[in-house]
Design a protein that fits this description.
Layout (H helix, E strand, L loop, with lengths): L2 H23 L4 H18 L4
Helix pairs in contact: 1-2
């Protein structure tokens, strides 16, 4: 893999970590949890290399 792809996967993993951390800490709003899941789904699939 070239350096661009490595950076792409590192940035994606960072975003998944941050969103996952916020997902765990969120206690009040179910709507925010659903929105975070909608954002997390394609990012996790990209990390697993599922198209």
């Amino acid at each position: 893999m070239n350096i661009i792809m490595i950076l792409y996967y590192l940035i994606t993993a960072y975003l998944v970590f941050i969103l996952g951390w916020n997902f765990i800490r969120e206690k009040k709003s179910v709507n925010n949890l659903i929105l975070m899941l909608l954002v997390l789904t394609p990012l996790i699939l990209r990390l697993l290399r599922v198209k």
